[in-house]
Amino acid sequence: MVAKMDGPEAWPNACGAKLTGEQGITPCVYGDPESTTTIALAGDSHALQWLPALRAVAEAERWRVTTYTLGGCPFIDMENMAAWKEWPAPRCVDWNHRLLKELTTVVKPDLLLVGNAFFHPNGMMPPEPTDKSNMVLADALGTTWQRLTAVGIPVGVLRDNPQLDRIAPECVLTNRRKLTRCATARADAFRVGSSAAHKLAATRTPNVHLVDLTDAVCPGDPCPAVIGEVLVFRDNNHLTGTYVMTLAPRLRTALTRILA
Hints:
By secondary structure, the chain is α/β, with parallel strands linked by helices. It has ten helices and ten strands. It has helices at 45-48, 51-61, 91-107, 131-149, 168-174, 186-191, 195-203, 214-217, 241-246, 248-259, and strands at residues 18-20, 24-26, 28-31, 38-43, 64-69, 111-115, 155-158, 208-211, 226-227, 230-231. A six-stranded mixed β-sheet has the order 3-5-4-6-7-8, sandwiched between helices. A two-stranded antiparallel sheet has the order 1-2. The chain is globular.
């Protein structure tokens, strides 16, 4: 139960960005509020999971971080998307339209970081991403990011992490002496999620940078549930805040390189 709560959503006085009036969005703010360098974070829970490391980096670098995340809502300027059943929720369309306007005309951050889980385009609902659905998602993401880069805002893509085929805390609890039972073959772990679409979209979109920490999440084959006595996943697809914090130095290196 503790592991499942090891994320920014469970922080005391956890903050969530909110719609303001008819057009605006009020973000959450971390780091140095008076800084001349602003990093914005947008996306769903797969973006928000990186906040512990991002906040640590911001405090060390004296950056201002503003977050615009909403569970189940990838930052994609495309209405014709669905992950499962009715998701993303209809509210995501309005959210993303407002957010795009807020970022490009009001905030204009020095860097926009984005991240999201995999969302199938309507009509493409196999259990896992396919080459075709990855291509469609990559096209939608790239088109969205170009709206930012067109006004001079660089984009950093937090490449989606590999995923396990079981719930990590439960598996580790029952297999403490045989943790390999909780691991997932590398090929299977990378087959799900947005990893392939992120890489495809980032590599072909100018002024978009792939922030790829996946080798630190899965350093070999198979992908483990525990690294260095730290639980990596709080379910099967979200990283624990504790493990994300161990990746802060890598994230700092990646971000300072982009901003240099």
